[in-house]
Description:
This protein has helices spanning 2-6, 16-24, 107-116, 118-144, 147-157, 175-181, 186-198, 214-220; strands at residues 27-31, 36-38, 46-60, 66-73, 77-78, 93-106, 167-170, 202-205, 208-211. The protein is α+β, with helices and mostly antiparallel strands. Strands 1, 2, 3, 4, 5 and 6 form a 6-stranded antiparallel beta sheet that branches. Strands 7-9-8 form a 3-stranded antiparallel beta sheet. A hairpin with a 5-residue loop joins strand 3 (46-60) and strand 4 (66-73). Helix 5 packs antiparallel against helix 8 and helix 6 crosses helix 7. The longest helix is centred in the middle third of the chain and has 27 residues, at 118-144.
Amino acid sequence: MEESLRTHYLFSALEETEFKRLCAGVQVVNLDENEHLFHFGQEARYFYLLESGQIMLYRLSAMGDEKVIEIIHARQTFAEAVMFFEITVYPVSAKVVLKSRLYQIDMAVFRHILQLSTALCFRVLGNMSKRLHMAIQDIDQLTLQNANMRVIELLLQSMPNPATNRYKIKWETPKQIIASRLSLRPETFSRVLAQLSKKGIISVQRNTIEIIDANALRLEIGITTPA
């Protein structure tokens, strides 16, 4: 556990005494698929580092549907921003997508360490700024782009490098969760993939998508040169 925490950029700058104090309050949490880590409105006492697996952060719509806000992957931290809320409750629910192992970190302990470490404060702020920037990009994507553009952007984001024209994507995340993340209905998501497949631009086999012609994929959304 200590090695995993120490190698994470958020904690690597800690002095040894600070790091030992942090570790003293850390608990290992193992959860299976579909189990909840916390629920919207629950008192927030911890934030988390995901060691392995996958977690989705979501809110329920007025109709009771799960709207995916973010998908957390291995080696990402989440819920740390709640430490700075006036009322410390979780603003989303967290549910396991793939069997997960997490490190549960006491917010009160971490806040005290932040008061003693300027370097750590800047790292936390940098991480939160990056998440905010990503959230703004998501808002732009969801408000300015149609369904085709959202799906194609997702496919292009998985490109190994800009010079690649043919590559494969293997999704471990269920398609309905990916669709929710894009604010699409699962059937709309599948229809866009089917249309691209019919054009010969991609090939779909269960959870594997092969991009046959990335340049043609770019042209679908008006991009004429690699990003």
